[in-house]
Automatic annotation (TrEMBL), chain A:
Protein name: DDB1- and CUL4-associated factor 13
Compartment(s) where it occurs, according to its Swiss-Prot or TrEMBL record: Nucleus, Nucleolus
Coarse class of the protein's main subcellular location: nucleus
PANTHER family: DDB1- AND CUL4-ASSOCIATED FACTOR 13 (PTHR22851:SF0), U3 SMALL NUCLEOLAR RNA U3 SNORNA ASSOCIATED PROTEIN (PTHR22851)
Automatic annotation (TrEMBL), chain B:
Phylogenetic lineage: Eukaryota, Fungi, Fungi incertae sedis, Mucoromycota, Mucoromycotina
Gene Ontology CC terms, in alphabetical order: small-subunit processome
Keywords, comma-separated and alphabetical: Nucleus, Phosphoprotein
Ranges annotated as biased composition (Basic and acidic residues): 84-102, 194-225
Main location group: nucleus
Xref: InterPro entries: SSU_processome_Utp14
Descriptive protein name: Small-subunit processome
Compositionally skewed regions (Polar residues) per UniProt: 599-611
Region forming the signal peptide: none
Species of origin: Phascolomyces articulosus
Superkingdom of this protein's organism: Eukaryota
Compositionally biased intervals (Basic residues): 865-875
Biased composition (Acidic residues): 64-83, 117-138, 166-193, 517-531
């Protein structure tokens, strides 16, 4: 007897769906995959082109401040929270993901020169102003400060200790305050009329650094009653950022258009010099990964640098963005914030062409492959050219060209001098890393 | 300022004040007072002398003791410091600097004339000291004392004793002293004008001081009556007392002396005073200027901070060099172990934690447990077994174990002891012993072990070579000479010498190779020599033939050949041939001779011997290439040139054609030469003769010439057979062709010869080609016949023994001229011409190109009488102007100026940064990373980004793991 079984493959009658998993059949036989180098080159080229095409770094602008944003601070634990202080004394706390203000207060009578999050309580933050006060705020307890500390002079900058209830202010001297006391517990002074900024080291938490109007960067240790070291530079340093994964390195945004990376153990020469800005660098911030920095400049652009390279990886600008006075990397190192003179805070992607949101496995691997191909062929002329191409505002471009001309003519002059004068020829060439450093005081 | 100091100050402030007020009254008084005071301080510091000594001392010079002052701890505070701290007020001192200066001047006034006691420095020092002393009037600074007199403890003791006394009634003493001093001051003040008097007074004062010291107790008793009744309610006010009584700590303490509850307080006060158990020892130094102090502090702090921060260095470096960084960093590391530190994984921990998880492990475990081999079971088993043993057995066992342990311990100790021996001779002996043992183990002393590794062989060979190089085994040492001179009476010496000789002999012996096959070698060797002999024979025969022919030519001939110019031409030709043959022969014989020489120098000929190779490698090499080159010389007629190359390659000093053949050698050769004649040659000869008879003269002559060349070929062939072993030859033709192909450099004969490279190829083929090409005018039939005959010539050669043609060698010496040789070598090699052609072609190719674009047949009619079309469509693509070429003026160079623009895109102009060379960079690009060419794992590994962050995760700064 013959039995006919009813057997049907679902493949025959079920329609193909997007969730279906298809096994990718591959044959690794090299003969059927010829010209590997050429093909990969083309892929790299396409990657670079696509990258440029999809490079849309601007995510959004947080508007609300009436005056320019002169100080900004990211929240150390909350990813989407950010504090900004403006020129009219207003402080706003932002929810970045919603791009809206969650808390605001007319905090000071002068420019809010510095804001920072309090380490002990997540809802607390501090602000300092030119009206000679430092105030501690709590976002939960309304728009009145919890504490007010009155100083003798206008405060220029503020930084909080990572763990302890201590904070440091910069003014005519660098003061360290205990939150529970109305008077500073340390007053550091070493030569400068006033101090521009102060920043606590986040890794080695006892150390802090300040920059003064006498073109110096001074290092302090809380355990001593005195500053510990000082480097004098050719021009003033506007801001400092400590590397969050390296205890002894910090970046200094300088007035001479460059940012310098220092090792605090040896400040005779900079570790790296980040060039490309065409005006004074106003603020600098390290990515939480410690691999990148972002700088905001007076030339209305912000630039992103890899800490191992001397030139910027990317440059961001918009038509309406004015002088940038504060920049911040977000705590997940995916975004960059810039506060500028025009009263807007702008949110940028740290990688201009990166797709936001969750990527599936294949996409991730494809992107990783593309990145590695780009890395591999980055020295090829064609690819390099496309990769480096950045449209810039005309004034920046002109300034850049002029700067280059000036520098090259200076260099040429120096070379000519060396060629024709014995005296000059014997002089040692000063490396770029040491040019801006006048000396280290002890 | 440390707190102790403050305490002291507090103690002394009260009683000090009145005195200082007093000091301000009169300067000279002050001065004297200070001098006095100074002496007192000296005493305290152990500089005081015995009674008698002191007298003597003072008699000599009262001031000398003051010079001793320099050994003070306060010495550090010198002139420069004085200047720096000009406006600084010492906490103890109540006078200001101005008065001090004045004092100094006074002092100088006093001392200038008679005594050079007071340099300004000293004066200052004194004053400083005085200040100190004043300050610490009431107590003794034990530490300074300790500092000063490490050498004279005796003094210290006496001072101590004194101190003990002082301690009891310090206040009284103080009162007395001040009184005394005041008196003295007054007197001095009066005498101030008279210097001599002053000095006297100084001296007397000194004496007086001593006296007062001695008479202290007496005086004290007297004074005590005048002192106040002391209690806490009756303190002496400074202003009211006329005797300037200093209020001392002891005064205050007296009242509480009896009460037990104040013991701790008393103790601490004593300590402050520099007595008791925990004495504050260091002298209080003058504070450094604030600026300097600050700097020092900063530097110290900076150093400390740097050190602390540097603890991160390892972490930082690790992160910097990491292939991949997963952020947040520390969350991942915390899973491994606290703060990124990995736990110490040892085999023991692994074993203890091990549990069978995979099926195989489980199976193994089951099997083990089934067999009762698990660790626990084994232990149990052992315990059981031990239980069964009797007491004696256990004891025995234990003793055995003990014994073993003891032995091990001893050997260990011995080894340690031996290790400590530093004697060089002992070490030497040890080394020798070890080497000998090794040798024995390897068996190299007598016969080569076949199982030796290559390394060992090499070592052995090296050691042997080294040994051979030394003179130890030769009887050249002083000892050996002496022993030989003495006649070796001693048996030991004789034996030693014999041993030495034996060793020398042994070393001189050749080493028999391990894998050498002697049969083959000897066979080839034999054939080689035989070949040579046959060649010599050939040459001889040729010469004979030529002689015959010359005789023939002398006979009258008919026709064209009979004409004079023809005959002369023939003669010339013959002469040339003869010369050629002679030359070749000479060359040949030279070589033979040379080889003989080489052989005789070596004593025994062992060729292709591995043992020999390792030592005499260079020699063997050196001997071989010239042979080859000489071969080529004849072949190509450019002997000199190639020979030169051979020179450069092998660095020998051999030159061609300069070796003279000794007559005796020739004679010896003659004896054996005529005996053996190659039958093949005879055959050839006869055949040639037969042909000669049938054919005309010119052809015969040509044939002879041809034959000469053929013979040469033969020789070469035979040579090839013999010398296939070392294949380093000069491949001229190949290099030439290479040059032609690349065609960038002209194949100028001179240049090519200098740049020719030695390549491991057989020259024979190329050379035959050339010879054949040079002889292409000859009849192909004859050559082919000869070639066929040549094919089986080896056997014929083998029958021949000796070089027969040597007779002619000595009398014909035609030296080759270099130029001639080169010209001959490249006789038919039109390299230059070819190159020129090629260059012209490239110039044309890269020049302007015109192309006719007219369509063929379009608008034109066929047939006869058609006009040529006028309006041709021509397209010219601009090329490189021949006159503007880079190689336009370089005759011998072609520079390719054509560029492939498509490739340009993929070319980079310089090596990118991290790479050192272009090769490195290219290597980095070579292996593809894509999925098509890699497995999934490799692909993922290769494309993994360096920095990995998680979306929406806060990356915190690092926390110190070591905090």
């Amino acid at each position: 007897m013959k039995v006919k079984a009813l057997s049907r493959s679902s493949n025959d009658y079920v329609r193909e769906r997007s969730q279906d998993l298809h096994k990718v059949q591959r044959n690794l036989n090299p003969t059927i995959h010829p010209f590997e180098q050429g093909r990969e080159y083309v892929r790299a080229l396409n990657t670079v082109k696509l990258e440029r095409m999809f490079a849309k770094p601007f995510v959004g602008a947080l508007n609300g401040h009436i005056d320019g944003v002169y100080s900004m601070a990211k929240h150390p634990t909350r990813l989407a929270s950010m504090i900004s202080g403006s020129g009219d004394g207003e402080i706003r706390v932002w929810d970045i993901s919603d791009q809206r203000t969650t808390w605001s207060a007319n905090a000071h009578n002068g420019i809010v020169q510095g804001v920072c999050a309090g380490a002990t309580d997540t809802s607390r933050f501090l602000s300092c102003s030119q009206d000679k006060t430092v105030k501690i705020w709590d976002t939960n307890s309304g728009s009145d400060p919890i504490h007010t500390y009155v100083g003798k002079y206008a405060f220029m900058s503020l930084s909080h200790h990572r763990k302890d209830p201590l904070f440091a202010t910069a003014g005519n001297s660098v003061d360290v305050w205990d939150e529970s006391r109305s008077e500073p517990i340390h007053e550091f002074e070493w030569g400068a009329d006033s101090y521009q900024s102060v920043k606590f080291n986040q890794v080695e938490t006892n150390i802090l650094a300040s920059t003064g109007t006498d073109r110096t960067i001074v290092l302090y240790d809380l355990r001593t009653s005195q500053p510990i070291s000082k480097v004098v530079m050719a021009m003033r340093t506007n801001a400092i950022a400590w590397n969050p994964i390296e205890a002894f390195t910090f970046a200094a945004a300088n007035e001479d258009h460059n940012t310098y990376l220092f090792d605090m153990r040896n400040m005779e020469s900079a570790h790296n010099v980040f060039k490309d800005h065409v005006s004074a660098v106003m603020d600098v911030d390290f990515a939480p990964t410690g691999q990148e920095i972002v700088t905001g400049s007076y030339d209305r652009t912000l630039r992103l640098y890899n800490i191992n390279q001397g030139h910027s990886r990317d440059v961001y600008h918009t038509k309406r963005m004015q002088r940038i006075f504060s920049v911040q990397f977000s705590m997940d190192s995916k975004f960059v914030l810039s506060g500028s003179d025009d009263g807007n805070i702008r949110l940028w992607k740290a990688n201009a062409s990166e797709k936001l949101g969750v990527k599936d496995w294949r996409e991730r691997h494809h992107l990783a492959y593309a990145a590695s191909l780009k890395e591999r062929f980055k020295h090829m002329d064609e690819i390099r050219k496309i990769d480096r191409h950045r449209p810039l505002p005309g004034d920046v471009r002109r300034a850049d060209r002029m700067k280059k001309t000036i520098l090259s003519s200076e260099k040429r002059k120096d070379e000519n001098r060396r060629k024709h004068s014995k005296k000059y020829a014997e002089e040692k060439r000063i490396p770029e890393r040491k040019k801006a450093i006048i000396g280290v005081a002890k | 300022m440390p707190p102790q100091r403050k305490g002291k100050k507090g103690n002394n402030n009260l009683p000090q004040k009145p005195k200082n007020n007093k000091n301000r009254k009169g300067k000279s008084v002050n001065d004297v007072f200070e001098a006095d005071d100074d002496e007192r301080s000296l005493k305290r510091k152990g500089h005081d002398l015995d009674e008698v000594d002191d007298y003597e001392y003072n008699a000599q010079d009262g001031v000398a003791s003051e010079d001793d002052e320099e050994i003070d701890s306060d010495d550090a505070f010198n002139d420069s410091d004085e200047e720096r701290f000009e406006h600084f007020k010492f906490s103890g001192s109540n006078k200001d600097k101005k008065s001090k200066k004045e004092e100094e001047e006074d002092n100088d006034e006093f001392s200038e004339k008679e005594i050079n006691m007071d340099e300004s420095d000293d004066g200052e020092e004194q004053q400083e000291d005085d200040d100190e002393e004043e300050e610490g009037e009431g107590y003794m600074d034990l530490s300074t004392m300790l500092e000063d007199d490490d050498n004279d403890t005796l003094h210290k003791d006496t001072v101590k004793a004194l101190m003990q006394q002082q301690e009891d009634d310090d206040s009284d003493d103080e009162a007395i002293m001040s009184l005394d001093e005041e008196e003295e001051e007054e007197s001095d003040n009066e005498d101030a004008i008279d210097d001599v008097k002053f000095i006297e007074s100084l001296e007397t004062k000194k004496r007086k001081r001593d006296e007062t010291e001695l008479a202290k107790k007496r005086q004290r008793q007297q004074e005590r009556t005048e002192v106040y009744d002391e209690n806490e309610f009756n303190l002496i006010a400074r202003s009211s007392t006329k005797e300037n009584k200093k209020l001392d700590m002891n005064d205050l303490m007296d009242t509480m002396e009896n009460e037990g509850s104040f013991t701790t307080l008393r103790k601490s006060l004593l300590e402050l005073d520099g007595k008791g158990k925990n004495v504050v020892k260091s002298a209080l130094e003058a504070p450094v200027a604030k600026r300097l102090q600050d700097r020092a502090d900063r530097q110290a702090a900076y150093k400390e901070t740097t050190k602390e921060v540097s603890r991160w260095e390892a972490t930082v470096n690790q992160n910097r060099q990491a292939e991949h960084l997963h952020f947040p960093l520390q969350n991942s590391s915390s899973s491994e172990g606290a703060g990124g530190r990995k736990k110490n994984i040892t085999s023991a921990t692994l074993a203890s934690q091990f549990s069978a998880q995979t099926s195989m492990e489980q199976q193994i475990e089951q099997a083990l447990s089934a067999a009762g081999m698990k660790d626990e079971e084994l232990e149990e088993f052992e315990a059981l077994q031990l239980n069964k043993l009797s007491v004696e057995e256990v004891q025995e066992r234990r003793q055995e174990l003990q014994m073993m342990r003891e032995l091990m311990f001893r050997s260990e100790i011995k080894a340690k002891r031996l290790k400590k021996i530093k004697s060089k001779s002992y070490r030497k002996l040890q080394r020798k012993e070890k080497a000998r043992q090794e040798l024995q183990a390897a068996g190299i002393g007598h016969e080569v072990d076949h199982d030796m590794t290559a390394d060992e062989q090499m070592k052995a060979a090296m050691s042997r070579a080294e040994e051979r190089m030394t003179l130890k085994h030769k009887n050249t040492s002083q000892w050996a000479k002496r022993a030989l001179a003495r006649g070796q009476q001693d048996e030991g010496t004789r034996e030693a010498i014999l041993e030495q000789l034996r060793r020398g002999e042994e070393l001189k012996k050749k080493v028999q190779g391990i894998h050498s096959d002697d049969e083959d070698d000897s066979g080839s060797d034999g054939s080689d020599t035989e070949d040579r002999d046959t060649i010599a024979n050939d040459i001889r025969q040729l010469q004979n033939e030529m002689e015959e022919e010359t005789q023939d030519t002398q006979q009258p001939k008919k026709g064209l050949l009979g004409m004079k110019f023809m005959q002369e031409a023939e003669k010339r030709k013959l002469a040339v041939t003869k010369a050629m043959v002679d030359d070749f022969e000479k060359e040949w014989l030279d070589e033979d001779k040379e080889e003989e020489n080489v052989d005789s120098s070596n004593g025994k000929i062992v060729q292709n011997n591995p043992g020999r190779l390792s030592f005499g490698h260079v020699k063997a090499k050196a001997s071989n290439p010239p042979k080859k080159s000489s071969d080529i010389q004849v072949e190509l007629n450019d002997a000199g040139q190639i020979k030169k190359l051979a020179h450069s390659a092998s660095h020998t000093t051999r030159t061609s054609g300069t070796v003279d053949i000794g007559k005796s050698a020739l004679d010896a050769a003659l004896d054996t030469s005529d005996n053996n004649v190659s039958p093949w040659l005879q055959q050839v000869e006869s055949r040639v003769k037969g042909k000669k008879a049938s054919k005309k003269h010119n052809t015969t002559k040509g044939k002879i010439e041809d034959k000469a060349e053929l013979n040469i070929e033969k020789i070469k062939k035979s040579r090839k057979g013999a010398e296939e072993v070392d294949e380093v030859t000069l491949d001229l033709s190949q290099t030439l062709s290479k040059k032609k192909m690349t065609a960038t450099v002209v194949a100028d004969p001179a240049t090519t010869t200098t740049t020719t490279t030695t390549t491991p190829t057989t020259t024979t083929t190329t050379i035959t080609k050339e010879t054949s090409s040079s002889n292409n005018k000859k009849k192909t039939t004859t050559t082919s016949v000869k070639a066929s005959q040549l094919s089986d010539d080896d056997e014929d050669y083998s029958s021949d023994d000796n070089n027969t043609g040597m007779i002619h060698a000595s009398n014909n010496k035609v030296a080759f001229q270099q130029k001639d040789l080169v010209a001959r070598a490249f006789a038919n090699d039109n390299v230059t011409q070819e190159f020129e052609l090629e260059k012209a072609a490239t110039i044309k190719e890269q020049g302007d190109q015109t192309e006719d674009l007219t369509l063929p047949g379009w608008g034109s009619w066929g047939g006869k009488g058609m006009k040529k079309k006028k309006n041709k469509v021509m397209k010219t693509t601009k090329g490189i102007d021949p006159l503007k070429r880079k190689d336009a003026k370089l005759m011998n160079v072609i520079i390719n100026e054509k560029r492939n623009k498509k490739i340009e895109k993929y070319e980079i102009t310089q090596v990118p940064y991290p790479f050192q060379t272009m090769e490195q960079y290219e290597r980095s690009l070579r292996a593809p990373v894509g999925k098509e060419w890699n497995t999934r794992d490799t692909f993922q590994k290769a494309t993994k980004p360096r920095v990995l962050t998680k979306l929406g995760t806060v990356i915190n700064p690092l926390d110190a793991p070591f905090k």
